[in-house]
Design goal:
Arc Repressor Mutant, subunit A; 2 domains; 75% helix; 9 helices; Tetracycline Repressor, domain 2; 204 residues; elongated; mainly alpha; transcription; single chain; HTH-type_TetR-like_transc_reg; 0% strand
């Protein structure tokens, strides 16, 4: 095996471990998942796990960063770089967030917070301080930009930006809880979210 192939495999290993952990969390929950079961699913030795993560808590925090935090960071970057009308940019951001957070297995991480957050308050605090706060800042800056451009109502920031995020959480909870009973029509749901919010935010 060449040195390049070894390097690629080594670099990919943390993501392989995170992928395995998310699958384990989805099947067993966070508290019932062990480092050993994660290592087994990732097809690595238990000792190899500790080359990359100090413990299970460090792993799930990194999973939050790369699976959720990265989405928020990318959305923030796009709001800074794209020179688009507010409605179009807002639609792009929300569509990306839905696709990455609700449409993939990342939604399992939300299940951990909802089902087991009270048992592991340090995880809830970490998620709030590093991800939710960043998301709220990103949305506030996006609205402020729309106000400055004369596209968004001047009083839009008087309201709590959590209102903008709430339907995303609702969609995630629906997927986790009711999907087998009634499948959520995601394109229709996302279109409705974007349309209703932009209608309420835009200057008339």
């Amino acid at each position: 095996m060449t040195q390049t192939k070894r390097r690629r495999r080594k670099d990919a290993r943390p993501s392989d471990i995170i992928n395995a952990a998310v699958q384990e969390f989805g099947e067993k929950g966070y508290s019932a998942t062990s480092v050993g079961s994660i290592a087994a699913r990732a097809q690595i030795a238990r000792s190899t796990f500790y080359l990359y993560f100090d413990d299970k808590e460090a792993l799930i925090q990194e999973a939050f960063r790369v699976r959720v935090g990265a989405v928020v960071a990318e959305a923030h970057s796009s709001t800074q770089a794209e020179d688009l009308p507010f409605a179009e940019l807002f639609s792009q951001v929300l569509t990306s967030v839905y696709a990455r957070l609700v449409g993939q297995d990342t939604v399992v991480l939300l299940r951990v917070l909802i089902a087991e957050g009270r048992q592991f308050p340090e995880l809830t605090r970490f998620y709030h301080d590093t991800i939710l706060s960043a998301a709220q800042t990103m949305l506030s800056q996006l609205i402020a930009r729309g106000i400055a451009q004369g596209e968004v109502r001047s009083d839009a920031l008087d309201y709590d930006v959590k209102i903008l995020m709430a339907p995303v959480i609702m969609a995630a909870i629906w997927r986790l809880t009711f999907e087998d009973i009634e499948t959520l029509d995601m394109p229709r749901f996302v279109d409705g979210h974007v349309s209703l919010l932009t209608s309420g935010l835009l200057v008339r």
